[in-house]
Automatic annotation (TrEMBL):
Names of required cofactors: FAD
Occurrences of domain Methylene-tetrahydrofolate reductase C-terminal-like (ranges): 365-448
Annotated Pfam families: DUF5981 (PF12225), MTHFR (PF02219)
Family: Belongs to the methylenetetrahydrofolate reductase family.
GO terms for MF: FAD binding; methylenetetrahydrofolate reductase (NADH) activity
Taxonomic classification: Bacteria, Pseudomonadati, Pseudomonadota, Gammaproteobacteria, Moraxellales
PANTHER family: METHYLENETETRAHYDROFOLATE REDUCTASE, METHYLENETETRAHYDROFOLATE REDUCTASE (NADPH)
Keywords tagged on the record: FAD, Flavoprotein, Oxidoreductase
Protein name per UniProt: Methylenetetrahydrofolate reductase
GO biological process, one term: tetrahydrofolate interconversion
Catalytic activity: (6S)-5-methyl-5,6,7,8-tetrahydrofolate + NAD(+) = (6R)-5,10-methylene-5,6,7,8-tetrahydrofolate + NADH + H(+)
Entry superkingdom: Bacteria
Keyword S-adenosyl-L-methionine: no
Pathway where this protein functions: Amino-acid biosynthesis; L-methionine biosynthesis via de novo pathway; One-carbon metabolism; tetrahydrofolate interconversion
Amino acid sequence: MMSSLSECLDQKQFCILVEYLCSVKSPLAVRKTLANFPAMMTLADRVHADNDPAPLDLATKYPDTVDKLIHFSGKARDIKDLERFLNDLENTTIRNLLLVTGDKLKSHDFGYEVAAQRTRYLESVSAIMAAKQRQIFKIGVAFNPFKYTEAESDAQYLKLHKKIKAGADFLITQLGFDVECLQQTQVFLQKNYPNFSALACVMPLTLKRAQFMVKNRVAGIVISDHVLQTLEKEYQSDPIQAEINVYARCALQILICKHFGYAGVHLSACHKEDEQKKLEQALKVFENFSLNECQQAWKDLWQADAQGDFKPNVKISSKPVTQTQILKYKKMHTMHRMFFESKMARTIGHFVFKPSFWNRSNAQNILLKIEHSSKHRLVGCESCGECRLGDTLYICPETCPKGLANGPCGGTSLDRCEFEDRECIHSVKARLAKKIHQTEILKTKLIPAISITTRHTSSWKSWFTDTK
Ligand code: SF4
């Protein structure tokens, strides 16, 4: 009988989600169990190339007898694309989905030449809010616990609160080898959401894969110098033993996660039959190890003296919040309350923004220009049509290359943006929030997606004419 992901999570039965690549030409054999753990398929969305085949199309080529998890990535997608995807998914027997914002689109368009062409990302929080309304899906989200500055780690956890509030049923961590970070996530969940399920992403880490990830700076993945050097040394001295160690480490990480309380693992780069057999053999060796024994064997295999061996090899310092940032926040907050939230402002606004006048297209264009010129220099406004500054500590979401309003993607590296040209705006925001005691808003305020059709309109008119 088929085990479903939903049953496993509800019954707290440890399970393995085996990732299959959408870029493979013909379907591969699929296992229903792996080392006696229930196994299911998971299909990622455009991980290798922007034009990878759609996971849902590929899923239908595999038998219904294996439960599946379909990823939906928000890169270059609008809320309407998600609704179409959900309609298609409803017409299948698949009920598990993983909603992620996604890493940088390889063909990302910054919109330098034509602003309207800027690549947009449907962020996960907004996607969860929309999918939850259908009430039939088990919704997973991504979470990156491998963050090493206070601000970027705070920002990840603040967003996780939002994802859970929006309706996420489980999380899958980013791939990583720092088990201390994986343990911290479990501590956080036990404290705040004891019934929430988490799965850890693991992979048999070969030297080749590690080198690829370092060379290509794969977003959000940390391969420390120690990890890379250990793989290099052992491969040079004995490639056969090196391969045995690769699967032994993967098995140990799976068992450590099980001991930590993870509901299962998301197993990457292990979809071939021979790879799965090697992993099963390794799991057999350690299956009766206690947590302490697994951790000791893990350290021995990595030749690690300290937990720091898995962390980035740089000096990590906390940036201070500047007086200018605090003053800007205060000034903007006072102006926002005065011009948009006060009773007087609303009364005047309803009168001034009468639809009969402002619905004329020339009037709308004038209004749009006034709004853009007054806010662009100040905060980086791009006329999104639904101003969210009041919910984002007056740090404009449009200054994030992905346009994310609810919190960071997983791609930061020591506070730097995945696009490498700026500091992540969500690290700046998390730092400021802590300083001015405003973290609650970053934890609880769910900001819906802005449809492409709303963009490049004035938010002022809708602010005063919509019933809020
Ligand atoms: S600013 Fe932050 S959330 Fe936006 S793309 Fe860069 S790293 Fe991701």
